[in-house]
Amino acid sequence: MAESKFKEHGLIPLVANTAPDGVLQVVMSCFQVKFPSGVEASLGNELTPRQVKDKPEVTWTADEKELYTLCMTDPDTPGGIANPGTKNTGWKHFLVVNIPGNKVGQGDVMADYVECGPLKDTGNHRYVFLLYKQPGKITPEGCPSSSLQIRGRRKFTVQAFAEKHSLGEPVAGNFFLAAYDDYVPEKQKKFYTVGNIFTYFTGGSVSK
What we know:
The chain has about 210 residues and is α+β, with helices and mostly antiparallel strands. The protein contains four helices and nine strands. The strands form two sheets. Strands 1, 3, 5, 6, 7, 8 and 9 form a seven-stranded mixed β-sheet that branches. Strands 2-4 form a two-stranded antiparallel ribbon. The chain is globular. The model is unreliable at about 195-208 (pLDDT under 50).
């Protein structure tokens, strides 16, 4: 099921060379991704930015002795699925490493959750959650990006991160689709501060 859905939506080899065996539950199940609004990611279902504006609860069946990395990425930023020529390789929405078992709150946050905000008239974007089992502890680099910072999020390629840290292929995953809605301007108003705009266009960083 997971393999066919990842391939159907063009995510293999875009975000991974092989499809994950497990399904991350972004709600509650084997690998769940559940949002406070009550919706969950379900292998390509369509959700709205307003429905997923708050950090989800992600659960999976884990080996409590192992460390895991959890990532959420949008490989379609900024142009959407239908405009591949405009892609800048990806956006890091959420990244937590050194998660003991499935205790996400005890992991090291490298980028706190930022809700999706697809641009108007770009259609659906694919928002992908991937779970990796780590071969050892990862040393986080630099300062973590808060939920209101762009720093370190642009031009993020999850495969490059996985390769750098010898993570191999994801052991579980899930994804949903989302397009612009009336929540996006609210998100942009709080997110695109002067400092963030400077960072976005220059690649520099502004101290907060």
